[in-house]
Design goal:
The protein has 297 residues and is of the alpha/beta class. The chain folds into three domains: 86 residues, Arc Repressor Mutant, subunit A (Orthogonal Bundle); 101 residues, 3-Layer(aba) Sandwich (D-Maltodextrin-Binding Protein, domain 2); 99 residues, D-Maltodextrin-Binding Protein, domain 2, CATH 3.40.190. The strands form three sheets. Strands 3, 4, 5, 6, 9, 10 and 11 form a seven-stranded mixed β-sheet that branches. Strands 1-2 form a two-stranded antiparallel sheet. α8 links the parallel β7 and β8.
């Protein structure tokens, strides 16, 4: 047996000859000359000290030794490809950029600890955050402007993982006549001046009212959640918003559950194929955070 080592090219040539049924077809498949394939197989046979292929008038068949090692040779090549893939993933996690689009409530309440933990694990990856409405975030994902979107609007044929669920709440100043209620029906506030959020939940809020056969008396429409909360604090009107919009420890507002309850589901959305390793790692972080959130809720 020769002391020379076995290499990938030799294994590929050997398997190609068996799969294609001859040296000429194997050479065409591998983009090599026929003599190059013959030399690679001969070198493999010399390294192993056994004949692997029987050549008879242009026909090729494996010897007993060739048949015995065929499966191992294929598994060896597959293992090498896995090693290369893992190396490429690690290289992609050493540096790079992840573009994330998010609705404002999730950007303020959900993403900070996720981004912090992700940065500690992958310090070389930059996370770029862009805030938008649900529809804007959805369109940014489908248009390729961002890698991952955090939104309640999930486009078809895209990967999505649940990240959070929260209830819609009626909000009003603490001194409002309904502020002491344990629950609020849409009809209870249908005649109140209403501050509508047009940051993405407008259709949901209108649907909540329509379910009771009433409509809100919209006094103002506001895109920025912080501005909406400020207007409600000042008594401009009441509103209905997802729970994540209301800051924890809020003292000047009453946030009251709806009757019947209405919920929102936020998902991380990304294209199914071609996601860079850095973006895939961030999506995995969002999925893990989502599992923890769902377990608590």
């Amino acid at each position: 047996m020769s002391s020379s080592s076995i290499n990938v090219g030799q294994l590929r040539a050997f398997l190609a000859v068996l799969e294609e049924g001859g040296f000429t077809a194997a050479a065409h498949k591998l983009g090599l000359t026929q003599s190059g394939v013959s030399q690679a197989v001969a070198a493999l046979e010399e390294s192993l000290g056994v004949v692997l292929l029987l050549r008879n008038r242009g026909r090729v068949a494996p010897t007993a030794a060739g048949a015995a090692i065929q499966s191992d040779a294929r598994q060896a090549l597959e293992a090498i490809e896995r090693v290369r893939h893992r190396a490429q993933v690690l290289i992609g996690l050493q540096s790079g950029r992840v573009r994330v689009g998010s609705v404002a409530s999730a950007a303020a309440r959900l993403l900070p600890p996720i981004v912090k933990n992700f940065g500690a694990r992958y310090p070389g990856i930059e996370v770029v955050l862009i805030e938008g409405t649900d529809n804007e975030v959805r369109d940014w994902v489908t248009g390729g402007a961002i890698d991952i979107g955090l939104t309640a609007e999930v486009p078809k044929d895209y990967d999505s993982v649940p990240v959070a669920e929260d209830d819609f709440l009626a909000i009003m100043p603490r001194k409002h006549r309904l502020a002491a209620r344990r629950s609020i029906r849409p009809a209870d506030i249908a005649d109140e001046p209403f501050v509508m959020s047009n940051a993405g939940c407008e259709d949901d809020v209108r649907g909540i009212f329509q379910s009771e056969g009433v409509a809100p008396k919209i006094a103002f429409s506001v895109r920025d959640p912080a501005a909406l909360l400020a207007m409600v604090r000042e008594g401009v009107g009441v509103s209905i918003v997802p729970e994540l919009v209301v800051p924890s420890g809020e003292r000047r507002l009453a946030a009251i559950p709806l009757e019947p309850p209405a919920r929102r589901k936020l998902c991380a959305v990304a294209r199914k194929a071609g996601l860079a390793p850095a973006a895939r790692a961030f999506l995995d972080s969002l999925a893990a955070a989502g599992r923890q959130h769902m377990a608590r809720g």
